[in-house]
Amino acid sequence: MATTGGVTVRAPAKINLALAVGPLRADGYHELATVFHAVAVFDDLIAHEGEPGEGISIVIDGPRTEQVPTDGSNLAVRAARLLAERVGLDPSDAPVRLRLRKGIPVAGGMAGGSADAAAALVACDALWHTGLDREQLHELAAELGSDVPFSLLGGTAIGNGRGERLTPALARGEYHWVVALADHGLSTPAVYAEIDRLRAIGQVAEPDPEPQISDALMQALRAGDAQALGASLTNDLQPAACSLDPTLERTLEVGRKVGALGGMVSGSGPTTVFLARDSTHALDLAVALTASGVAADVRRAYGPVAGARLVESVRG
Ligand code: C5P
Questions:
Q1: How many Å lie between the centroid of ligand 1 and the Cα of residue 163?
Q2: Does residue 149 sit in the same domain as residue 191?
Q3: Percentage, residues of the chain above pLDDT 70
Q4: Do residues 199 and 134 share a domain?
Q5: Structure pTM?
Q6: What is d(CA 271, CA 255) in angstroms, rounded to the nearest whole number?
């Protein structure tokens, strides 16, 4: 397998339009029924051939990236290593320098780490000409994390199992979101542990052993009806995220007051997302949320967008 010059891969953030969390499984994960939706907030990963013997390295640019490891525990590095191993390549024979430009909030519940892993799979697959098909990449993605397969797929898709079993959803239209960022992160395992705790003490209802997506939400997506979608957004992790970070209640309340069609905590939080009628309404909501001072940063993002994909390739 020959190496080539360099590639750039762009991978999107995700939000969950519905996140129904079942009971804790024996393997430490929760059974999910979710609707993933890829939105136009991106990480870009640039991968270049390195010097022989150099191995796989990464540098990271962007806000709060000091929290992201640059050693072998980085998800993009793990993804590159896993791919090399799977195709029988010694990484020192195919050294790669990764440069990550993070646009997705770090520890924001928008699958930024998963986007990076998916981007690294696509980038190294292109650099090394591995010849793996989409399904084989999907399998590697699932080994790296529950949300990584969706970061590869993009669009709008139903996720089952721990989130790795995907079915593209019948969805029409483009949706305009306002994303409110906090100035700190929340740990995903901590939020899942908190929902288990709240369920155990009876503060929230017992989980459905077979979590489901509501018909109302699927119908709204099929019809491309933003109003109906806004009314059917749900997230079982929201009470847990709000319990660990009570300031989120206030952000959600402001979003409702300023006229969002719907709003919720994104995934395990602390990012919150609000649905607008159209792009003009999204601008109005973003201005109002910014003025309220409840969020550290406010952005607009439309969806759905494609999964991790090659945007540039330079031959060496
Ligand atoms: O798979 P991933 O590494 O993204 O998951 C991070 C953590 O989130 C897991 O270790 C687990 O604590 C929690 N999780 C879960 N159930 C899922 C997905 C994630 O409990 N379906």
A1: 9
A2: no
A3: 98
A4: no
A5: 0.95
A6: 13
